[in-house]
Automatic annotation (TrEMBL):
Classification via CDD domains: USP-like
Residue ranges occupied by any UspA domain in the UniProt entry: 50-126
Pfam families reported in the protein's UniProt record: Usp
Protein name: Universal stress protein
Family: Belongs to the universal stress protein A family.
InterPro entries xref list: Rossmann-like_a/b/a_fold (IPR014729), UspA (IPR006016)
Annotated source species: Sediminicola arcticus
Signal sequence coordinates: none
Domain of life: Bacteria
């Protein structure tokens, strides 16, 4: 039963033959197994016997029992090919391996993942900390933006948390400083600004609590839930917070499809993609 969350029953992993291939495959097959999903592996590039032998050899080493895996070999440009594959195979979740602060980092996260998060029809998971041995996912941070898709993103965060066995979810409401509408010049204006901040925090936390209270109890009963209001620049603030609390996964609304406006004024998520604080799950609502 789907209670407003985005289910992950068909997962696509875009892979390259790099030193990180085995560890990314280990993490991806583990995730697919936990979600009881069908896994499709796609390589955009030349298909050779050497490559086929390598991928099949790796899968024999790591494939969990009972996991359905299909390998696709495609020619073409990576972004267009992966985007089309998400449509053709009716993918729920696209997984991309991301390298943090390394030479290939801009290739995976900057030039490809940044565009794919805008253009694909499904949710996207960017892995920056894959592990050979499973590392428990204990703490999720999820955005609590006042936006149309936030309810589904929060519901999906609880779905993921329960599937991965997480113990805590922190819902972050980022509040723009301009909403205070007070220039702090003396003690009186400082007090007024403080009162307005408390009212804004109460408003945002009440809105989020209403979203959480509408979720099935089976989603929320075993998870510690925390609300955190932050004043600052959207995207940057939640990314910094996730890094400070050492969150295992950051869950965000998907950016809107690319437009002239978005190219001139980057979406909140651009701040996170430019310097990933942890693994990032971007939820895109599907019809």
């Amino acid at each position: 039963m789907n209670d407003g969350h985005q289910s992950f029953k068909k997962i696509l992993f875009g892979f390259a033959f790099s030193p990180k291939l085995k560890i990314n495959l280990l993490e991806t097959t583990r995730i697919a197994h936990l979600f009881n999903a069908t896994l499709i592996l796609i390589h955009v590039g030349e298909r050779t016997k050497e490559k086929e032998d390598e991928i099949h050899s790796l899968l024999k080493e790591i494939e969990p029992s009972g996991l359905s895996i299909e390998i696709q070999w495609k020619d073409g440009k990576p972004i267009k090919t992966i985007r089309q594959a998400c449509v053709d195979f009716k993918i729920d979740l696209l997984i991309l391996g991301a390298l943090q602060h390394e030479n290939m980092y801009r290739f995976y996260v900057g030039s490809i993942a940044r565009k794919l998060t805008r253009q694909v029809s499904c949710s996207v998971l960017l892995l920056i900390r894959p592990s050979e041995i499973r590392v428990a996912c204990n703490h999720l941070v999820v955005n609590g933006l006042n936006a149309p898709n936030t309810s589904k993103t929060i519901a999906s965060a609880f779905y993921v948390a329960n599937t991965l066995g997480a113990k805590q979810i922190t819902i972050v409401e980022e509040i723009l400083n301009k909403e205070i509408h007070v220039a702090v010049e003396d003690d009186r204006s400082l007090k007024k600004a403080s009162i307005i901040k408390e009212r804004l925090k109460h408003r945002e936390e009440s809105r989020v609590r209403k979203i959480v209270s509408a979720l099935p109890k089976i989603f929320t009963q075993s998870i510690k839930i925390k609300n955190q209001s932050i004043f600052g620049k959207r995207g940057y603030s939640i990314g910094h917070y996730a890094e400070v609390v050492r969150a295992d996964l950051l869950v965000m609304n998907a950016p809107s499809k690319s437009s002239v406006f978005n190219r001139i004024f980057p979406h909140d998520i651009e701040y996170i993609l430019s310097d990933l604080p942890t693994d990032l799950l971007i939820i895109r609502s599907q019809p």
